[in-house]
Amino acid sequence: MSRKKYAIIMAAGSGTRMGAEMPKQFIELEGKAILQRTIEVFLNACPGVNIITVLPESHMDYWRQYCLDRNFICPQALVKGGITRFHSVRNALAKVPEGALVAVHDGVRPMITVSKIRELYGLAETCP
Prior knowledge:
Elements: E1 5-10, E2 28-29, E3 32-33, H1 34-45, E4 50-55, H2 60-69, E5 76-80, H3 85-93, E6 101-106, H4 114-125
Parallel strand pairs: 1-4, 1-6, 4-5
Antiparallel strand pairs: 2-3
Helix pairs in contact: 1-4
């Protein structure tokens, strides 16, 4: 029997090194935020995957409004990022039930493929 799948999308960075006006996860690439593109790959790879999006607390309302404005219908749990990546992942893992398969992926890496996501979940499925 297939276990529940979760994708923790890490997007809690401030992007200050990039020097942009907004964090890079919200910068648009061909009309869509990079974060949206990343989430869409996971949704296409595994319909029904549970998305947990980790964001800076100061940008949660921005992301909610972005999703509404763009009609990006994606059931997702929003989780506040921590002081480090470790803390951010830990915050998100608190939302995952025991026994689920979990992918942790960087929200600004939208070039992962559907086939790679399926392959990795498939490999994880074989582990006890």
